[in-house]
TrEMBL record, chain A:
The keyword Translocase does not apply. This is Cobalamin-binding protein. Coiled coil: none annotated. Residues 5-140 form the B12-binding domain. SUPFAM superfamilies: Cobalamin (vitamin B12)-binding domain (SSF52242).
Amino acid sequence: MSARPVRIALGMLGLDVHTKGIRTLSLRLRDEGFEVVYLGEHLTTTQLVQAVIAEDVDCVGVSFSSASYVKQCRTLLQEMERQGASDVPVVVGGLIHADDHKVLQEMGIAAIFGPGSATRQIADSLHELCRGSAESGSEPDRRVQG
Amino acid sequence: MSESRHSDGASHADEQALTTVQLSRTKTWGGIPTKSHYTAADLPAGHNPDEKPGEYPFTRGAFPEMYRSRMWSMREIVGYAAPEDTREGLQRAIANGASGMNVVDDLPTKWAVDPDHPLFRDDVGVEGVSVPTLRDCERLLEGVDLAKVDLAWHSIALVYPLTVAVHKKRGQSLDGLLGSHMPDYLHQVLSGWGAKLVPPNMALRMSADCIDYATEFTPKWSLGVPQAYDLRERGVNPSQEIALGMAIVQACLDEVVGRGRSVDDVASKMAWVSTSDVDFFEEVAKFRALRRVWARTMKERYGATSERAMRLRIAVHTSGKSLVYQQPLNNLSRTAIQSFAAICGGVQSVETCTYDEPISIPSDEAKQLALRTQQILAHEVGAARVADPLAGSYYVEALTDAVERDALAFLERIEEKGLVAAIDSGWLEAEMDAFNVEFDEELQSGDRLVVGKNAFTAEDEETPSRFEERTASIEAHVRRFVEFRDSRDMRRVGSAISTLYDVTRQGGNPYPPMIEALIADATVSEVWGTLRQAFGHAYDAFGIVDSPFDLSPA
């Protein structure tokens, strides 16, 4: 199979300082064969989406340990749409409470990981999610001009 | 890495095998190999069976009578929403029997960001209390005499100048100001705050200037330096906690003592902010080794002569990251053992994590259980009765020695590179990342078992309920802030801000003009943003808000 590896961008937004989980995951996903673009922490949504487009990724993952994640996810998805990147699936992880899963899924979050997710499960889900774009071997073309 | 990798750690099918076959791990949680038993032959060469608590090098405790002379301070965390909400929480904690309160600021306040910052409105008052102005700090502390109540502030940013400003404005003498905060900016660069909040060229100077000012003007105020708790949570083991913490302390002391302050005055104001993780014996060993390393460093490296500088006081918050989301009531067992370890290790204050910390902002019930855990340890278990009860245990003495030895070896590696270079180059962060990756690999392979997480898991687990946020007061608080800010005497604010800018640029200590600017009703964003500008950085770390002041270099 000539599938190219799944390319995923990972990052964090705003004031959240709990970086341990996503930094560990980025290294572990590399071990699992992903191409990980670690975008860093304390990004604005605008910066994050610009980076997602510039890095031409199959998927973007954002980790939240702060409690305002539902609102932040909504803002992020709006910004993805505004910049023309709404075809890139957004997955989230961190301290996401089960009571919020439904509202996050309904707004368009593609997958939700949390304290119960083992690295291997996350890797499997991401493969599943990105199979269309990565395993066909096609290069995604999501760059927006201007 | 283990040869026998499972896909998701130990599952149900393995449960019986795990309980009947063998121990999953013979190393400590932090990675030190252990033997099946210890004998007198394992006592370290330098072991002194006659050492007493309260005596140099203080392995056995900072004070001769330990908890008979002074019980550890049982702290409860408070802080949410508007200042008025947190003031109610303080009163409730006192009524509950907490002997100390830790006040937690919300994220914007921790970042010195005003509550109307367009990017962060949703974070205001959510994870702590919003305190953007001196007026808000006065609301929070209404009825609290800061010469009588010892508040511990769980943050850095501007809490210290805010509290000093309140006390000063009330006309009280700074000599009597009680309390503590954690002015360790170097640790912030390492534990997730990044250079964005505290650019490296500000970090050491902001810590040193704070220590310098506090040593001179607020003798009863304690300084939580190093803030080693966050470093442990970020990803180091107990011996690395000692090493990295000591490297930070030494960097600060080199700077402040280099300015002419006496190590006896400075070191005696410091208290170590530590964690207590789930490996009981290893944590006890850590606290014992830590006091010894501190005492020897102060005496041998800095020539301290005062006992107060050589005996280390330790403040503990039990490990948040050790708690498990699944089957959260199990966390009550974890936190009880962790608190017990801290007390057997002879610490001066303990905050026990709430069992629901992995799930949400702590509920009132969980907070009460956390405090009651400590009260049971103090009054029923007998944890407070005898100082350093594990001294002389072959295992604990050998482990104390092993933790100390590993700590000194890691400290040497940091010193070879230089702390600031070790931070700037990313070497320390890479070490932490490597620790976390190994931990995760061990979870996945089943070499490390965490009950409820990768072993002894339950099907159909009910989702734990969470604390309901109260948002009505936050909206009113933000509105009040904006109205207040827009009605200030801007000439007075501007003049205080100009002074702050000029003093900082000229290399002076920014703390006196920070305090004056807050008294002149400058907001936290204005004070911190001006400091950032004086150090050559953008006013707003996120590049959205511009300074309202026209600052031209004097």
